[in-house]
Design goal:
Chain lengths: ~350, ~350, ~350, ~350
């Protein structure tokens, strides 16, 4: 059994890690870290876990945890993991960091967008960007995995084949993304109160959202050259789910079959990426509670553009599910272990 | 492997059976019956099942199905199962009927509340009312199980210990129940459109809801004498979940510990019934997607009444989950097999 | 023009006062009090008021306000109004207090349920309980009106005719109430976050909710003797609306027409109380944004009980609308002035 | 008093016309047309109108209605108005058509996108496209007004100043729009059931939505040359509201002040168009129930693009409110008459 410790286990992503790991045949949770709820029963913080989790919340002592755990998940605010990680810890345990600390290779980009100093830039090179479908082999050998962001996972997987095959104009990519409210976290803020979110939709972080450089960096690798793009997130009155609608100009006239072929090339054998049938648009309800990403596209011959759509559950494939997928790879397990639950509907 | 056939697999309860059975280690689905969608890919009707279910919807030929299946789930409108079941079918296969056809022992009560003729009253005696926690031994030997209603499961389990131990006045029970909208089914009706249900709450079927006699009959057995009570369902703008708030007069002064002791007596060892800690009210969000029933109570010393609350997921413990729990018992499996998934939150 | 000052104008009830008064032909707002947002543009706190309200939030200086305003609305936490009101203020201006400070005539009951000391018990006798339909004449002459609570308005108006005419057993009244989330206020609490409230329903304050003694006191006056009853509020995932489902035993056999006659007796000429047609259940969606209360009842002959239902918008008739209705009466205006807006649907 | 007849009064837009006209000081409704509910009380179809509307639903006899009404609103499916209108009717009454029949000047474009034959192309030239802010003078003289679509109103008003002033590349406009579910109408379809819409978001009609040519035509006039663009609508789990997020490449470097100046130029004196403060994104909650359109923009210097956002209530400014605004203009009234209600929040 893999002994797993979770730091930040009382955030939404942390709790989802708990849910998934409880059903994982090869892992057990040995540490429910939560600075905010130390010594409180975990099941008092999350009533769904009553009689399923008999543990108290603990502090975030990473040194001690490294002794006890084979893998540590840090579902913590930006800056935490970078400030704690060191050689000794990495010599004893593996880390899957759900924050942004090790996602961007260029420390100056990190510091510019996140507006905090990076405390461990020396690990940036080693850290593997854990988008499993694109970095499977590296993840298998990694000690430190940077678990991708929710918007980024959806955006990158939706566009990757087109960028990689240079079928779209890399200078004219526009990503319009929509997220459920769990993405905003469990902090007590007026803006996230039920009555403020319900019955409304808005864009936020326009031209400034921190997932932008992460998408640009990863798609840039696929492109073989830097990419600058527009990314606009929106807040949707629902609990879970991200939908990405991306727009790009095709570099020449392609048929449906042409495009479909490249999606098949990259994703046909990917368990968690479902290329929908022609004409079917991804909907977040069809992936809720699962680790799937549903993708599809429509060619608009009138404008010469392609509209690519992707849907995932932001706290599963966009956070905790992908983190477990990374853990599976790091420990030589079947990548889908503990993650084959069908989406829950309605 | 238990070969399972589902008639009515494209209703919400039927689809939940699919979801649960896909994760069941000892069962496989051999028949996706759906009169409305014959020959259509199941995954076109429920996009969550894309790449998980590779089958077409079939008709509801129970004769043929009896040859192929070890168990048939009928998630069908009232009257269907009663009109199809016969000795030959029951000699070949087991049936878990999710409709009301075999829930009420008295055919005249059935015909009065459901306003249809019962076509197979000869099986009423044999049929076992499959509220597993209360009828475990009978279910194990049954060929034909009447799977309880959603409101009834929640109402009965909430009140059973108090009635059985004669701690409340059996003539003054009031059950105020609230249900998510999946309970209304997937039929295309104006009243169930998004904009009609959203941002509203209403009572319906006041003094006439068909789950009333079912609750009365089962609690009557516990009481050792007939019970007549008030039951009022409400429609709540959410997908899943039932909350029951029941009111009853205590026959004498009892302490919290007195009452708690009888709940423990009946439920302490029940995996799926969670008696919450003192002061914690059941909430439907804590059971969503799971087979749990959360129960608790508050004594109001001012009025001498007890307020009992129960919460479950109407399409799991209130329908498909309990049906699988019954199947497990009927086939000698661990009752919780395939049903230990933690609740999904948020 | 009546000059109106609002203290607590940035809570949900305060903002609704602004919305209603903006459309009132005989009133203008001269003071937008908000301790939390002093000096901030009101329209930055509530974007709907952009270009409609050109004012900054001010402090809660009641002395100064008394000089400027003909009427002060205190939409403030319990204790505020009682701690501020004095003879000088009351000599200069009228007060409609939306808090509970002057609703309960017995100061010991107030202090027991609210757990704070009452700072101005000397005004309790003078204060008029402003349930306009029942206290119209007193309100007209009042300087200090205690605006009723949201649950209480709905509960009292639903049950009043039956209690007043002694048609039900006053010792066996059970009120099961359901409220939208705006009733919880705009404070930043985890329990009221979107993801915590959405897709769930729960009871809260069971046997301890502070609206209980208020309902009991007012129905006790109608009854001519004290009443003790059960009141259980529930939180519903919607913005606005309260639904009350009340249960009571009829003291003898009554026909529909008997009961209907007494409802007509009290409410036939009431503009804001709508007695629905036989068989129609109140739904909160039909009163949203309006000052209406929809009521109806069902007689359950099987149990000898009557189920009474009432629906209103908790921040209109349950708060700001009723406050303006009181203001209209206090200033000799048509009671419906500024309040005849039809409900908004969907 | 203007005598108004409504054909299609039981759809969501029709009902909103009723709500608005009930509060209009210069209009009264003389005909509640509804083919589906003939002879039924209007208030049985819409319970909010109980005791406010005392009328039965009538058929859609436009001949008879022309005799009785000064203005007819046709809130009907595509094709209805075109098949009914004739010279005699237009000689007796004015028409505001809420369908698409007279929005597109080129009949072949209409027939291509709507896939029905146009029965009255002879009135296309006369018909005025009633986007009041842009066509005020023509509307004043019109007999037949084509009331714009909901998505189109929001899209056009958001982009108009930039197109008109040639500040953006007219060949690279991308409009990503999000709508509440009332836009799907009140027809009983499985896809619009509560449980199907709730907790999900999806794109639909990708590259084929019928509002596309309408936006293109109107923006083409502003541009002085044809425009072809991408328009993608999305369904959002909320009742009301449309949010448009539009992307375009600036033809040169502009400052915030440059862009703001052109928005001010066109909208500064428009009552219903609110240009938000710098940095504030439009949110649908701030316009709900009102006739306002909130617009704003962000310049992304990294990509040289501008992101323009607009929010309105799809059944007010996107349908019934704008229809009344048109009526006001056609009858020489103040354009805002009956339409100054503040947005309802929460």
């Amino acid at each position: 059994m893999i002994k797993a410790g979770i730091i930040g286990s009382t955030g939404y992503a942390g709790q989802e890690l708990v849910r998934i790991l409880l059903g994982h045949p090869n892992a057990e949770i040995v540490w429910y870290g939560s600075r905010s709820y130390i010594d409180k029963d975990y099941s008092e913080v999350y009533g769904n876990m009553f009689e399923l989790v008999d543990a108290k919340c603990m502090d975030d002592n990473m040194e001690e945890l490294a002794e006890k755990a084979d893998v540590i998940f840090t579902a913590t605010p930006q800056g935490f993991c970078a400030s704690m990680v060191n050689d000794e810890i990495l010599s004893k345990t593996k880390i899957v960091d759900l924050s942004a600390d090790f996602r961007l290779k260029d420390v100056s980009v990190y510091e510019k967008w996140y507006k905090i100093e990076h405390k461990s830039p020396q690990y940036l090179e080693e850290a593997v960007y854990g988008l499993c479908e694109l970095a499977r082999d590296s993840v298998k050998k990694a000690r430190l995995v940077a678990n991708p962001g929710c918007y980024t996972t959806c955006s990158i997987l939706s566009l990757y084949p087109l960028v990689k095959e240079h079928m779209i104009d890399a200078d004219a990519i526009i990503i319009d993304a929509k997220s459920g409210t769990s993405g905003a976290g469990r902090g007590a803020k007026v803006a996230n109160l039920y009555c403020e979110v319900n019955e409304s939709i808005k864009a936020y972080g326009v031209a400034t959202h921190r997932h932008t450089p992460e998408i640009e960096e990863q798609l840039g690798y696929a492109n073989g050259a830097p990419i600058v793009l527009n990314f606009t997130p929106h807040l949707v009155p629902m609990n879970r789910g991200i939908l990405v609608t991306a727009y790009a100009s095709l570099v020449q006239k392609y048929s449906y079959e042409d495009i479909r072929a490249v999606y098949d090339k990259y994703y046909k054998d990917e368990y968690f990426v479902r290329i929908l049938k022609k004409g079917v648009c991804p909907e977040t309800r069809w992936v809720e509670g699962s680790n799937f990403v549903d993708v599809n596209f429509v060619i608009d011959e009138r404008t010469g553009r392609i509209i690519v759509m992707g849907a995932l559950d932001n706290i599963v494939k966009g956070a905790a599910g992908q983190a477990v997928q990374n853990m599976n790879l790091m420990f030589g397990l079947d990548e889908t272990e503990g993650l084959r639950m069908p989406p829950l509907f309605p």
